[in-house]
Design brief:
Elements lengths: L2 H9 L9 E3 L5 E3 L5 E2 L4 H15 L2 H20 L7 H14 L4 E5 L6 E6 L16 H15 L3 E7 L8 E8 L4
Antiparallel strand pairs: 1-2, 2-3, 4-5, 5-7, 6-7
This protein binds zinc ion (ZN).
Zinc ion (ZN) binds next to loops.
Length: 182
Amino acid sequence: MEKDSLKVSTVKNEFVDLRLLHREENGVLRDNMSNRRVIIFSCSAYRAMCDSLYDQFQSGAGVILYRMGEGYGRKLVKGVPQLGMSKEEIVDALGKLAHVAGWGKLTINISENSNGDAVLEDSPFTLRRNDIGPTTCHFMSGVLVGGASELFGMEYKAQEVKCASRDESKVCRFAIHTKKSD
Ligand SMILES: [Zn+2]
């Protein structure tokens, strides 16, 4: 698939096609947009991995998840074909990619040199443990930080300010700060 087609289809929201993947004979799965190898990874497996991290590292697990998300977010932005796209269009495309990837409904409000925020409905990263704080989507906070830092070429921080793990709204809210605003 041509790289330009990702731009067109994400911006116009035309790829609601569920045939996202193809399987090669040797058991390798690739996505049909970028041809990158992917794996199917259940949300319960993600939570089980997080449980192991928390059992071992307690609150340090949140830092590990945040840093993992940061790397993921940087890679995500690098992977979006950016030719001819404004930064606003790239932010919009990332929200649509998250939707396609099953991350829930992600809305990001951010522009260059300013603080921003994000809302994620039906996050797959929500954890329900009694021994961690009121917010649990540290991986997603990291994704937002990595993505923003990569896209705008400056350092950001992100913090989840409200997590669906603590109420029934199914909505997680994140604040994204430029480090200069500290
Ligand atoms: Zn959350």
